[in-house]
Amino acid sequence: MAKKPPRKAARRIAPAYNSVQGRVLLVVTGGIAAYKTPELVRRLKERGLAVRCVLTRGGKEFVTPLARGAVSGDKVYEDLFSLTDEHEMGHIRLARETDVVVIAPASADVLAKMAAGLCDSLAATLLLATDKPIMAAPAMNVRMWQHAATQANVETLKKRGVTFIGPAEGDMACGEWGPGRMTEPHDIAEAVAAFLKKGGASSATLTGRHALVTSGPTWEALDPVRFIANRSSGKQGHAIARALAAAGARVTLVTGPVALPDPAGVQTIHVESAREMLKACERALPADVAVCAAAVADWRAASPAKTKIKKGPGGPPGLALVENPDILKTLARAGKRRPKLLIGFAAETEDLIRKARAKFLAKGCDWILANDVSKEAAVFGSDMNTVHLVTHDWAESWPKTTKDAIATRLAQRIAETLLKKGQPKETKR
Questions:
Q1: Contact, 263 vs 240, CB < 8 A?
Q2: pTM of the model
Q3: Distance (Å, whole) CA 219 – CA 221
Q4: In CATH, what number is assigned to the domain containing residue 124?
Q5: End position of a domain, from candidates 143, 162, 197
């Protein structure tokens, strides 16, 4: 009987990430999202980063120091008053022997302590003692995130140079829905790696800039009951508004009818029709950047009925349509009030790049983000998206990821581009 051939050792194919050199000090605070942090550690290490963890008392309730240490390959620090730790490293050295401090999840409690300068624990002390950049991935109940106290703390920390990653929008452990979910570990790792690739420079921010964002569909009335609309959920536009605000911008969001909460820290203007959206955008100018992510109806009824249209023996009534104003093209022709960087979206079902480039040429904008909205792509209402950044000369395809991650990446590109165009000059209104 022939012998079986020896089994070949299984090969593990590592993800094709660009390796980044750097040290990350990960602060894990109390919150249900703490259970995701072992995966975050793995994602960071996949990118070549060394990770050392600090676990708060609350964080230890959700994940054990043993589990965290096993993944990171390093000791997990917990106690401010441990003599051994003080002798070997000390909280001051721990705070400074890193390239970036990442807080994930960043609870409302730790943000409040950072804003107030409290230092009643190892985590709070090292956050006050560090001279390294800090990146925070908030995670909390939607009402806690939207509370005026939390938003005031976030604004204070942004002014001090803290970079925020998220939060994302979605289902909460408490059963509520909205902004407050911690950004997914893959996207946090990407943000940290990108930050360190740029030398940890925090200069590419949008502090002092005004950003205008449109989002959602428009409703074009046929009568007091019926309207022309589309399937846009507004998730991508709202995510972009949140990301720009997190990068330090003053954001004006003009949104059509959506079933989404207003992003915290953003001035939100609610409209229905394309003409109302255009008026709101024009009133919001001047702006440093405008991102037209709304799915604006191309046509409206020429003469909407003042009363409900009734069925009759003559069959359905004729429907006369007229073109709506082109918001993107109008902003491109705004003269001195034209945004320094004008970005449009092209929702297409086929031949994305060619049609996006044609739209780019016709509209007079600076960038077009093309996305596939065919039935197969399942973009409408989804938390995922795939986009292609298109200009006159080149196109750049971004991998399929969350709409929040796309928004964060776009905000960073916007910040870098505006930085090259000159120092921010906040517009006075």
A1: no
A2: 0.62
A3: 6
A4: 3.40.50.1950
A5: 197
Phi, psi of 178 (to 5 degrees): 150, -170
154 with 227, same domain: the answer is no
Domain boundary among 197, 220, 246: 197
Residues 169 and 232 grouped into a single domain: no
Residue 298 lies in a domain: yes
Residue 163, φ and ψ in degrees, nearest 5 = -95, 130
Q: Is residue 7 part of a domain?
A: no
Q: Tokens for 30?
A: 């109390």
CA 209 – CA 206 distance, rounded (Å): 5
> What letter represents residue 191's amino acid?
A
Residue 23 main-chain phi, psi, to 5 deg: -115, 130
Q: Is residue 9 part of a domain?
A: no
Residue 328 in any domain: the answer is yes
What single DSSP character describes residue 36?
G
Query: Is residue 230 domain-shared with residue 328, that is, in the same domain?
Result: yes
For 402, other C-beta atoms within 10 Å of its C-beta total 22
What pairing do the DSSP bridges indicate for beta strands 134-138 and 163-164?
parallel
What are the catalytic residues?
174
Average pLDDT per consecutive 10 residues, the chain (429 residues; last block may be shorter): 44 41 88 88 90 80 56 58 50 76 94 92 86 91 91 90 84 73 88 76 72 97 94 93 88 96 88 97 97 96 93 86 97 96 89 85 93 70 84 84 88 89 48
Number of compact structural domains in the chain: 2
212: left (phi over 0), alpha (psi -120 to 50) or beta: beta
Residue 299 lies in domain: 210-306+319-421
Helix (H) or strand (E) holding 138: strand 134-138
Residue 256 to residues 237, 260, 326, Cα–Cα distance (Å) = 11, 11, 15
Sign of CA dihedral 387, 389, 395, 396: negative
In this structure, the number of other CB atoms found within 10 A of the CB of residue 280 comes to 19
Q: Quick one: 60 and 149 in the same domain?
A: yes
CA-angle at 365, arms to 360 and 370, nearest 5°: 45
Supply 418's token pair.
Answer: 């505006």
Read off the amino acid at residue 173.
A
Find the helix or strand (DSSP H, E) in which 252 lies: strand 250-255
Is 191 in the same domain as 259?
A: no
